[in-house]
Amino acid sequence: MSELGQDPTGTSHASDVGPAAHPHWYDDEAGPVVRPYAMTRGRTSHAAQHRLDLIALVVAEPAADDPAWDMTLSPEHAHILELCRERPQSVAEIAAGLDLPVGVVRVLIGDLVDDELVHVTRPVPPAELPDESILREVIDGLRAL
Amino acid sequence: MAFGRSSRTGVMHAVSPIEPLTLKLLVAGGFGVGKTTLVSAVSEIRPLRTEELLSEPSAAVDDLHGVEAKSTTTVAMDFGRITLRDDLVLYLFGTPGQDRFWFLWDELAQGALGAVVLVDTRRLADCFAAVDYFERRGIPFLVAVNCFDGAERHPVVTVREALDLEPEVPVLLCDARDRESVKDVLVGVVEHAMSVARARRQEAARV
Q1: B residues 35-74 near A, CB within 8 Å?
Q2: Do B52 and A59 touch (CB under 8 A)?
Q3: A26-45 confidence digits (pLDDT tens)
Q4: Which of B86, B84, B76 is nearest to B31 (CA)?
Q5: What pLDDT was estimated at residue A24?
Q6: Which residue from B2, B70, B110 is facing A31, i.e. has the nearest CB?
Q7: Domains of chain B
Q8: E strand map for chain B
Q9: What pTM was estimated for this model as a whole?
Q10: What element of type H or E holds A57?
Q11: N or C: which end of chain A has fewer CB within 10 A?
Q12: Which chain B positions have a beta carbon within 8 Å of A62's beta carbon?
């Protein structure tokens, strides 16, 4: 798949850690190197993400309005923040908006949670149907469309 | 949550104070049965596509150190959004048509209100897997027969018998292109979910 020794992040860590020092920074266990995960610096999971549901909403914190963030964040992080500042966005919408796999977007959202720039709402707990009153509101809402 | 800090009076970039409750419904069925068409008929956005990179889950039990090669593939899900109210948003997810992505369904199915199994009577067998899946997980679902132009209109009873459905599972005829028809289907799913929830509560009370 990827070429040996190619740094997928495109950044130059080569000065401090030469390719010779870490000839095998990945191994067979890592599976094929998947390019979109370069944006997450190879991470496929994030401690803060708790396996974010596709319909969990990502909400921008007031601190996200500070324009300084746009300068320090990666383009992908900044793009997510930009979307969420307009209105809260579901994980699925963010993935579609950035045209990135959901797994990648989850990691990036986890970073923004760590930076306290966004928080994530918890959807209805699984294996539990919501309250009857909510279901009734859904039915009324659908009929009124 | 920092209630004190947020400047809701600052109009320009005020962070929206409304954090809606989000719910999801699934639309399942065989390839080409009209899942995305159904989602488009009611979604307020053009159906979006999200992709997930899939790695075959490796056996975590005994680590055979690099023996098994993981294969990576991509699967796409189409979804739409219906804002029912400022504080209530419903997402519709078209499930991937391929059977081998069951594990992705698990994630999709988690916390879902219910599901529509969309059926083409010319290829009835295509929906067996979906019916089976929702039955086993106890996810409330109904069967919606998409009445394609020119397709023979099988009576509801025939479809019900062919699928060997439990008597309480609703079967409806629909036109996946028609907004009103799809609205009826979605209302039907939620009503069914409500009666399933009620029955479960009664059952729990009896035990």
Answers
A1: 42, 48-53, 55, 58, 65-66, 69-70, 72, 74
A2: no
A3: 555 544 455 667 777 777 77
A4: B76
A5: 54
A6: B70
A7: 21-52+67-206 (3.40.50.300)
A8: 21-29, 48-55, 72-85, 88-94, 114-119, 141-146, 171-174
A9: 0.78
A10: strand A57-60
A11: N
A12: 2, 5-7, 15
Residue B18 vs residue B37, higher pLDDT: B37
Q: Smallest Cβ distance to A101: which of B18, B52, B193? A: B52
Chain A residues with CB inside 8 Å of B193's CB?
129, 135
Q: CA B166 to CA B144: how far, in whole Å?
A: 15
Intervals of chain A under pLDDT 50: 1-20, 30-32
- Residues of chain A contacting B187 with CB distance shorter than 8 Å: 139, 142-143
Spell out the domain ranges in chain A: 1-33, 57-120
Using an 8 Å Cβ cutoff, are A118 and A81 in contact?
A: yes
Q: Taking Cα atoms as reference points, which of A60, A25, A39 lies closest to residue A107?
A: A39
- The model's pLDDT over B133-170, given as tens digits with 9 standing for 90+, comes to 999 999 999 999 999 776 666 788 999 999 999 999 99
